[in-house]
Amino acid sequence: MSVSLYYSAHRDTPLSDAERAGLGRIIAEGESALTAFAEHALPAWVRDGEVTDPDLEPRELFEPLAPYSFGGGRRELFAGSSKISHTASGPEPQMAQLNHYLAALARLRDAVPGAEWRVRIDDLAIPWVDGEYDLGSAGH
Q: Residues 6 or more apart from 43 whose CB is under 8 A from it?
């Protein structure tokens, strides 16, 4: 079974050039941080059975945080999805990926003032609580 993280931002005013550049920078930094974390954690994940393929590279394990729409819609500023589940990994790498992506989405949210954000795992909404996405409140 596949599990995906979906995200979008909407507002009445389009992205400025500075906002668009900032979003691109944040996405690249988030990807670099997740790759660096995974390179460090991968040997332990393989040893502990969390990753079943010892030859797997971090970029093969994680689908990137990549928007499929960047200011393409009438009010849509940003939209994308990332697969969280991977057939060769257990829950620990999946949670690491999800936590990195939620942190990156929080930074993206800060970079686009006045936007209405929607973040969900499949059909389960992840609420924004006290300045962060809160998995513990998801679905409530």
A: none
Q: What is the pLDDT of residues 84-140, one digit of tens each?
A: 877 778 888 888 888 999 999 999 999 999 999 999 999 889 988 888 888 776 665
27-to-23, 68, 70, 126 alpha-carbon distances in Å: 6, 13, 12, 19
pLDDT at 43: 93
CB 19 within 8 A of CB 112: yes
| Mean pLDDT for the stretch of residues 50-63 | 85
Task: Please check whether residue 24 is in contact with residue 104, taking contact to mean a CB–CB distance below 8 angstroms.
Answer: no
CB 55 within 8 Å of CB 64: no
Q: Please provide the distance, in angstroms rounded to a whole number, between the alpha carbons at the two ends of the chain.
A: 23
